[in-house]
DNA sequence: AAGTTTCACAACCGCAGGGTA
DNA sequence: CTACCCTGCGGTTGTGAAACT
């Protein structure tokens, strides 16, 4: 397999492009964003295999070899390329870091939405999820999930696999992501920006949610702080529209008016979740389920919105 | 300014499944 | 049949950077 059509690669820049390389290479020329001074160590078993962060030289050797000979057969590849690395290490380095079709940068709201949806369907099947996010690796998605999602499940004192937490994702965060995507799309397509809840400071949005829930279900125990407990989950039936993008088949056709403080917005719910999700993510072949509204607690509205802050 | 905590992510580890000699 | 090897996957760790106190 001739990946690049060139014979050898003399620099990382040549292989990955100047923009990419500047984000990869550190001042001292080492690779990776974590390890400023790679000092690979030898393995403990007495062999001269190296481990730890990869050097630029190793990366170039690996890239040149794969460019010339293709990937696969990693153990022999490592030997033939003269790399004192295990085949596993070479494979990982290539797949997670050096592959030319890797997509770098922040996970976009569309990608976040897709990750949430696919994880709700498949669980921790990271490689399977990654197959549906071109340019993203399973490792990247796994890291995203652990650093963002699990952290906030912990803050909420929810089990990440609990129904409570799944409901939070499905009925709060995912609709907000959709809203964010819509807002971004409309902002780029129109000079006139219609503010939505996701564009407001979270304090403001939370205040609105608190007001709604106070009216619907007055409780002296309503918290307004981040990281509140989920103990009341399921006690209160969810009634207020969280956003103009919170929609299900059950509310299709309804017209709901709500005011986020910058002027009333009127939304016609004519799309099913799966239809809109499909349009959001450009996705149409995974047979998304239709979501139904469930009973959520008031504390959900106070959760710090992790999805909207990059 | 210094120390501490948190975040982000590259890399490693162990295991399972498949292929093959 | 079986032992061995390779590959791929998911869980975990280690590290520097950034944020916070």
Automatic annotation (TrEMBL):
A Gene Ontology cellular-component term: nucleus
Pfam families, per the entry: Myb_DNA-binding (PF00249)
Secreted keyword on record: no
Residues annotated as domain Myb-like: 46-98, 99-149
Entry's localization field: Nucleus
Keywords: DNA-binding, Nucleus, Repeat, Transcription, Transcription regulation
Domain HTH myb-type: 46-98, 99-153
Stored InterPro entries: EOBI/EOBII-like_plant, Homeodomain-like_sf, Myb_dom, SANT/Myb
SMART domains, A to Z: SANT
Molecular function GO labels: DNA-binding transcription factor activity; sequence-specific DNA binding
PANTHER family the UniProt entry points to: MYB TRANSCRIPTION FACTOR-RELATED, MYB TRANSCRIPTION FACTOR-RELATED-RELATED
Stated name of the protein: Transcription factor MYB108-like protein
Organism from which the protein derives: Carex littledalei
